[in-house]
């Protein structure tokens, strides 16, 4: 009899061809065979309710019929051209309409690339080199973004600590690291360095941590005061917190916005969006060789990705979608609260109903260090039981989605109750 492939079989094969046996992004012992709605099935045949949803993009679930139809419809016309195509222009128009700070965009293939170009663009526009980044803020894998992303040791602000080997110290020297949500710190940092700062780059909701009231407004004011650009990394929050992203929800408009995940409908497509004046730096005819940023990519504006993204956005625009997404997230938050209240352990559910996580702590969670000093061993145990009980999620984030069903909620509630009851 032919041996069925299992997670374990694939893990053996993966270890031979992949360093660490994985793609670097998730637990390499699980191999996802398929997904449908808000569920995924692994190579052992185990089904999970999926709160990872591709690390964010699959807001509409894994097999939305309309998105699939849009993809099938475009496939016979060709897969990629390295040339302008109408679908990607339509998607660009829609993104610029949706994002308050957007007039023009440039496509790239990943959120990390969008962030890398956003920082470079700010440097080109201002003629300055320093970038302010927040400790624990995630902006992809560029050398700049690797500064104080998840530092284990505490350095004095604003010293940047690389979280990756292979980065020259000269990169760290141009980065200024600040604690998120600290009003006084950013004021004093900008008072000292403001005239040399090209950009303040921030996740408007940092990983799961919401901005304190007025904090994003303060960043806007400080950027304006010193003539630097405010970059909102909305790779996660774009088209999730609301259709217009975090900037619409929190009523603060950045100079540059980076987007990914949802706008590609599950395909590798990301973008940076800004005013035409700022984006002129991608056009040599407007700014000359001195001010020009060379930027291109083989798959930029890929028509299949654009078709999936365009249909995804069309569906998200329909009445009630964000009410449903919020209600779905709120429901999981409420069941979590009920289960954890019964344990007596200190915890906070940090985030927004569209994106959140439990942090085991007795203190408010305002920045990276608050999460770092929480009871992470308890969080690990909690997440492990959730996985055993059929919940698929990353440590540190819960991504609700639109297609969650009553059946999915029932499994989720039982899993949360068990995970809470097993805590020590
Ligand atoms: C806030 C944020 N920025 C940038 C990125 C990088 O996006 P990508 O993985 O598409 O490079 C991510 C990825 O999760 C992210 O969460």
Automatic annotation (TrEMBL):
Official protein name in the record: Glutamate-1-semialdehyde 2,1-aminomutase
Cofactors that this protein relies on: pyridoxal 5'-phosphate
Enzyme Commission number(s) of this protein: 5.4.3.8
InterPro entries, per database record: Aminotrans_3 (IPR005814), Aminotrans_3_PPA_site (IPR049704), PyrdxlP-dep_Trfase (IPR015424), PyrdxlP-dep_Trfase_major (IPR015421), PyrdxlP-dep_Trfase_small (IPR015422)
Keywords from the UniProt entry: Isomerase, Porphyrin biosynthesis, Pyridoxal phosphate
SUPFAM superfamilies: PLP-dependent transferases
Provenance organism: Shimia abyssi
Gene3D superfamilies, sorted: Aspartate Aminotransferase, domain 1, Type I PLP-dependent aspartate aminotransferase-like (Major domain)
EC class: isomerase
One of the GO BP terms on file: porphyrin-containing compound biosynthetic process
UniProt similarity note: Belongs to the class-III pyridoxal-phosphate-dependent aminotransferase family. HemL subfamily.
Pathway: Porphyrin-containing compound metabolism; protoporphyrin-IX biosynthesis; 5-aminolevulinate from L-glutamyl-tRNA(Glu): step 2/2
GO MF, one example: glutamate-1-semialdehyde 2,1-aminomutase activity
Pfam families referenced in this protein's UniProt entry, alphabetically: Aminotran_3
Lineage top rank: taxon: Bacteria
